[in-house]
């Protein structure tokens, strides 16, 4: 099994979200091949909207930068994990640039109605892409994940199709740099590792598991106390 991590945090290896992603992969079999790409260290130019990937060079982007290598890594992977913090209710800019540049994987929209509400708005160009699994692991700084992610999840639904990806939404992300929350943090990461083992076996997570790992690690009051102390220390 080959796993590709697309790390969309500008903090690269210091990413809080990446800590959760690595805990998730601890639940995978030992022989799993894992490759990580730190997107902020790559030359990924913005999509220029020329639509050559739909017309003159179908399935191929005309921009020559590090995305050419990333395309091949995505094709070779069995599971693609997008790992990033929530920035202003969406993806960080480099993750969004990479996502925009994945348009060559899609067929053009021809004006047809999308009858299946669970389907992607665009059909995949290569049927073998349906065999891959997409996992999105993302953290936010709010005490509750639920109100933070509707915009991002709607975007993913349109791109991948509702139910065709697994979203792991983690609240209280600031706890991963707060020393006082070490015990609670370790307990949460152990829960994430169990979720990884479940996904490795079933290629999906139960609703119960998704709800369990989306629950706040601390009470709102406890989270407020720890984060306030953290920000006071780092003024």
Poorly predicted regions = none
At the fold tier of CATH, the topology name is Rossmann fold
Structural class: alpha/beta
The CA-CA distance between the termini, in Å, is 45 Å
**Biggest pleated-sheet summary:** 5 strands, parallel
Q: Which descriptor suits the 3D outline?
A: globular
Order of strands side by side in the largest beta sheet?
2-1-3-4-5
Average pLDDT taken over every residue = 91
Number of helices: 7
CATH architecture: 3-Layer(aba) Sandwich
Q: State the helicity in percent bands.
A: 25-40%
Kindly provide the radius of gyration, computed on alpha-carbon positions and rounded to a whole number of angstroms.
18 Å
Describe the protein:
The chain is an alpha/beta fold and 235 residues long. It contains 7 helices and 5 strands; from the N terminus they run βαβαβαβαβααα. The chain has helices at 16-25, 67-76, 93-100, 150-160, 182-202, 207-214, 220-233, and strands spanning 2-7, 33-38, 79-85, 133-139, 166-170. Strands 2-1-3-4-5 form a 5-stranded parallel beta sheet, sandwiched between helices.
């Amino acid at each position: 099994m080959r796993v590709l991590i697309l790390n969309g945090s500008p903090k690269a290896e210091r990413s809080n979200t990446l800590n959760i992603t690595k805990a998730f992969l601890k639940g995978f079999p030992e022989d799993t091949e894992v490759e990580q790409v730190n997107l902020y260290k790559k030359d990924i130019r913005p999509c220029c909207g020329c639509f050559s990937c739909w017309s003159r060079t179908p399935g191929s982007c005309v921009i020559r930068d590090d995305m050419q290598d990333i395309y091949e890594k995505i094709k070779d992977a069995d599971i693609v994990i997008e790992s990033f913090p929530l920035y202003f209710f969406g993806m960080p800019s480099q993750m969004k640039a990479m996502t925009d540049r994945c348009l060559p994987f899609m067929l053009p929209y021809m004006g047809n109605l999308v009858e299946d509400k669970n389907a992607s708005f665009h059909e995949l160009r290569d049927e073998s892409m349906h065999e891959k699994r997409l996992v999105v692991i993302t953290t936010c700084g709010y005490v509750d994940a639920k109100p933070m992610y509707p915009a991002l999840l709607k975007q993913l639904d349109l791109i991948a199709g509702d139910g065709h990806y697994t979203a792991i939404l983690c609240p209280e992300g600031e706890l991963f740099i707060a020393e006082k929350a070490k015990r609670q943090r370790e307990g949460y990461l152990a829960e994430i590792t169990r979720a990884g083992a479940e996904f490795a076996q079933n290629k999906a997570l139960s609703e119960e598991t998704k709800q369990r790992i989306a629950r706040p690690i601390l009470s709102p009051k406890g989270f407020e106390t720890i984060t306030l102390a953290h920000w006071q220390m780092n003024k």
